[in-house]
Amino acid sequence: MSCTFTARLCLGLTLSLWIPVLTGSLPKPILRVQPDSVVSRWTKVTFLCEETIGANEYRLYKDGKLYKTVTKNKQKPANKAEFSFSNVDLSNAGQYECSYSTQYKSSGYSDLLELVVTEDYWTPSLSAQASPVVTSGGYVTLQCESSQSYHRFILTVEGPQNLIWRQDSQYNYSTRKYHALFSVGPVTPNQRWICRCYSYDRNRPYVWSPPSESVELLVSGNLQKPTIKAEPSSVITSERAMTIWCQGNLDAEVYFLHNEKSQKTESTQTLQQPGNKGKFFIPSVTQQHAGQYRCYCYSSAGWSEPSDTLELVVTGIYEHYELRLSALPSTVVTAGGNMTLHCASHSHYDKFILMKEDKKFTNSLDTVYISSSRQYQALFIIGPTTPTHTGTFRCYGYYKNAPQLWSVPSDLQQILISGLSKKPSLLTHQGHILDPGMTLTLQCFSDINYDRFALHKVGGADIMQHSSQQTDTGFSMANFTLGYVSSSTGGQYRCYGAHNLSSEWSASSDPVDVLILIPGQLPITPSLLVKPNHTVHSGETVSLLCWSMDPVETFILSKEGSAQQPLRLKSKSHDQQSQAEFSMSAVTSHLSGTYRCYGAQDSSFYLLSSASSPVELTVSGTIESSTWSPKRPIPPIPTENQDHTTENLIRMGMAVVVLIVLSILATEAWRSHRQTHPAAGN
């Protein structure tokens, strides 16, 4: 009996010493995994079992069973042990925990750690139901979707909080896909919200699909909003390169660019200096890039407010029919007046919009169909005009369901707003009537120190501009070489001056200074007669009769060498002839010269027939003022080779005076000589 009691006592004491070793009274270890608890197949994974006591042995358990044991390496005194798997497979997925033991005691188990291994196929997709943009404290719904029949979906959020949601999958008969909806929130502005989703079967809870593409929630915070701009422009031609810049405060760590149309978001952590800017480069713009953009920035202080909206328009999408832009009543308008820009196309666009120097000038207008011209048009009425309206304009067409996709542009239309500053003068070196093939140069000049000049053909669309040249005498001038004369050259021209630092142009030059008439365009040759005679006395009346056996609507009379405009008269029918009589009363010698006449039709005002044979008119008598004046010289634009005519005339006058004096002296000497000879004879 005593032996039995003694044995039981010894056994009890022994058990009392051994039980703590089994149950453990040591702090439980911490189990970590590297690189992550969710890895793809064939990744190297390392488990770290960490403690603070100094253990002799570490044990790793998988799904409640001892998996591996590591004895402490005396060469590595750190209080942890590593359990490495060089290439994890699906069989390594599961729940892990670890423990450790000293010489006399053993710890409890660490917290469970799940190792998830992903497969290589059937990747789900993740998207925000409405938008990934959410206000602070708000919620957003994310949808995870897959074509594969997985039982469950998992949504994870990166970060120290290790947020995770699980949902059973639902079958969507309209899309024929499996999906789950996750309500994420409340969203706080002090962290980033990078979400991914996975799918898996119930019978393999630790074997997941590959992760979806990440969706980062854009939190509308309270920090100062960044600025956004596009280079070279927010209206860009398809397939061109462009850059969108975002710039926030100097503490910004990452920038996000969000397309509100496609709901796509890009981010960059490679910031550009100076200014700590975010650069989003698009090497070739396509239709998919069109839309409205905002940018956000995130820093250690949290999220910023969203930037203002940038509308990116892609042009050159539609090429059905060209657009035409014209200005009414003219491309040159006096400041304070009104003008209308007329945009038209045979293609049925819903809207037309007007651009000035690649910036939107007005709101778009609905198109109107004009049955007579079988085209769609819109009229942009501008006025009262100011110098700021000077520039180049284009128009585009687009459809209401795609407001950021525009057509190819119309041709450029230049507009010039003339002001009130002193008008320049405009002259032609070659005269008013030119033969086809001659070269034509128009000279615009002023005693005002203008920096540039513009030349405009009345009724035309083009406006030529040249920098001015300054002369030693203070004149500014520019020569406009129009090249070889053709039927399109004929017309009425005006020129304008302007200073570089101002958009305001001067008043127009006198239009009568350059009226270009081009002969030889009509297959007729008129005749010219002088009545009563080719030679008349000053003060008499002379008539020049221009006539033709062919129908002519207007006759033009031109005097060779005259700077004045040729005279025009409507023809009258007489004896089956077309004729016009140019009558000049009280003629003076200034009207002497060579005359020719031409025929023209009213529909082609500046296209003339061949010239008549020349007719000479001689007026004898004193010189008086008259209707016709001799050819005016080119304006006083002095050059380095200055004219010395006045000085030469003075010298010649002095020489004449000297000759007269010498002649008088010679005459007196001759008379004295004659008087002396008769006296000697007596």
TrEMBL record:
It is a single-pass membrane protein. InterPro entries: Ig-like_dom (IPR007110), Ig-like_dom_sf (IPR036179), Ig-like_fold (IPR013783), Ig-like_Receptors_ImmuneReg (IPR050412), Ig_sub (IPR003599), Ig_sub2 (IPR003598), Immunoglobulin_dom (IPR013151). The keyword Ligase does not apply. It is found in: Cell membrane. It holds the Pfam family ig. One of its GO terms (biological process) is cytokine-mediated signaling pathway. Residues 124-311, 526-620 form the Ig-like domain. Keywords: Cell membrane, Disulfide bond, Glycoprotein, Immunoglobulin domain, Membrane, Repeat, Signal, Transmembrane, Transmembrane helix. One of its GO terms (molecular function) is IgM binding. The keyword ATP-binding does not apply. This is Paired-Ig-like receptor A13. It comes from Mus musculus. The lineage of its organism: Eukaryota, Metazoa, Chordata, Craniata, Vertebrata.
